[in-house]
Amino acid sequence: MPHDPLSLLLVCAVLVLAGWVKGVAGMGLPAVGMAALGLMMSPVQAATLMVVPLVLTNVWQAFSGPALGALVRRLAWMLVGIVAGTCAGIGLLTARGSPWPGFALGLALAAYGVVGLWLPPLSLPQRAARWAAPVVGACTGVLCGATGVFSVPLVPYLTALGLGRDALIQAMGLSFLVCSATLGAALAVRGHYPGGVAWQSCLAVLPALAGVALGQRTRQRMDPARFRFWFFVSLVLVGGFMAVRALV
After folding, report:
1. pLDDT mean across residues, the chain
2. By CB neighbour count within 10 A (0-12 exposed, 13-18 middle, 19+ buried), where does 182 fall?
3. Over 80: is that where the pLDDT of 26 sits?
4. Pair 161, 11: CB distance under 8 Å
5. pTM of this structure
6. Would you kindly state where each structural domain of the chain is located, as residue ranges?
7. Which pLDDT tens digit goes with each residue over 65-98?
8. Cβ neighbours of residue 208 under 8 Å, at least 6 residues apart?
9. Pick the residue with more confidence: 135 or 192?
10. Do the Cβ atoms of 32 and 53 come closer than 8 Å?
11. SS3 letters for the chain?
């Protein structure tokens, strides 16, 4: 993490912005945080900084509804796939001197934006959802381990389950919590969490939570469709730029 005042101010601004997006949309903290921080530092540094804010902001979302037990049972195989996939993909994110983490992160962000812009709403029958669960979890986990972003294919899959609005938000919080906690554990095992870095990640919670609170206050004043459109357009542009920059 940078130490000069201007860079620290920019990092805090990014965390507030990412938290604000999550407060408005209920998701987007890792995508916005990794996209913006990835322009200032390596993807693995950005991921280590984001882990504690991700875990803590999703704890509340996961435990804020009455359906936690039922969701754990319904999503169990997907959650197992997330853990296995993250452990399998972490080697790409932590590769030293390789352009592929930056390329993979940019590609994942752009893909997330494209899915949000153009993928029509999906609907999965219960039998198909059951066998797809571990596959979706493994794919999400590999992307989580490789890029620090875990929205694709997780969010389209959860949306296709036909959950009610509150249950869907809680399911996203539960899934994001497992992704971020597993990512943090995998990074720690690989030696990316010395005391100083862990302390910085804990401090990053403050601007992220401030952004979430601000986003929740402004949610009712915004046109949700317009907000989602520009959010996904921004991810396509930033992700495409990061992918090209990593290769060039």
Report:
1. 88
2. buried
3. no
4. no
5. 0.88
6. 5-247
7. 778 999 999 999 999 999 999 999 999 888 877 7
8. 15, 16, 18, 19, 29, 33, 53, 57
9. 135
10. no
11. CCCCHHHHHHHHHHHHHHHHHHHHHCCCHHHHHHHHHCCCCCHHHHHHHHHHHHHHHHHHHHCCCCCHHHHHHHCHHHHHHHHHHHHHHHHHHCCCCCCHHHHHHHHHHHHHHHHHHHCCCCCCCHHHHHHHHHHHHHHHHHHHHHHCCCCCCHHHHHHHCCCCHHHHHHHHHHHHHHHHHHHHHHHHHCCCCCHHHHHHHHHCHHHHHHHHHHHHHHHHHCCHHHHHHHHHHHHHHHHHHHHHHHHC
d(CA 173, CA 114): 22
229 to each of 70, 107, 152, 238, how far by Cα in Å?
A: 32, 19, 17, 14
Q: CA torsion sign, 96 to 248 to 49 to 135? A: negative
Burial (CB count within 10 angstroms: exposed 0-12, middle 13-18, buried 19+), residue 135: middle
Query: Rounded to the nearest 5°, which phi and psi values hold at 5?
Result: -55, -40
d(CA 16, CA 24): 12
Q: Which residue has the tokens 């979706």?
A: 136
- Residue 100: CB atoms within 10 Å: 15
